[in-house]
Amino acid sequence: MKQLPADTVRLLSSSQVVTSVVSVVKELMENSLDAGASSVDVKLENFGLDRTEVRDNGCGIKAADAPVMAVRHFTSKISSHEDLECLETYGFRGEALGSICAVAEVTVTTKTEEEDVSTQYTLDSSGGIVSQRPSHLGGGTSVSVAKLFGKLPVRRQFFSSVRKRKEEVRKVQDLLMAFAIIKPELRLTLAHNKVRTCCFKMIPKF
Ligand code: ADP
Ligand code: MG
Hints:
Blueprint: H1 6-17, H2 21-34, E1 39-45, E2 51-56, H3 96-103, E3 105-111, E4 118-123, E5 129-135, E6 140-146, H4 153-158, H5 162-182, E7 187-192, E8 195-200
Parallel strand pairs: 1-7
Antiparallel strand pairs: 1-2, 2-6, 3-4, 3-6, 4-5, 7-8
Helix pairs in contact: 1-3, 2-5
Residues 27, 30-31, 91, 96 line the site of magnesium ion.
């Protein structure tokens, strides 16, 4: 027997956390809601396999936190397991962004209220920053996930049939519908190949 190299272990374990386009959208949506967003726009290209982008108007990520935002097991949501007793966020394991970085090409553009301009960070497969540049995005965060499962032929193969790919977009629509129902005040849009397919803004009727 041989021990697997660290980057292979990271790739394989990340592909257990991120299993599909809908799981990417779910993780990114949850981060947007945890960031207090009232508006989220989801864009898919080629059923999300070429690119999935989730943009929000939440609190953004401070420049000081950027170097660790996508390093696995770094989180701003809990400090120790005792905090699990009073958890109020979707996320707490610090696993999603890091896992997505292992199975796709990720850029994060973000701006907090305190900062004047947004910064676009290009991340590597371990979640570290490869490069950064100023950007024109307003407040909030936009995460772009390109070439999903480019390095995992087995997962990519799963989406080779048109039926499977269409099913994936339907699952994303169902997921967003579920978020729209539990958060009626949230503005939520979905576009596939630049065509808007869903727009939710549910005002509760009382
Ligand atoms: P978790 O949600 O479990 O903390 P993630 O890997 O999903 O782990 O995210 C890591 C950290 O990056 C979060 O704790 C949060 O501080 C920051 N973050 C990620 N996405 C966003 C976002 N859309 N807006 C603000 N902060 C974010
Ligand atoms: Mg999360």
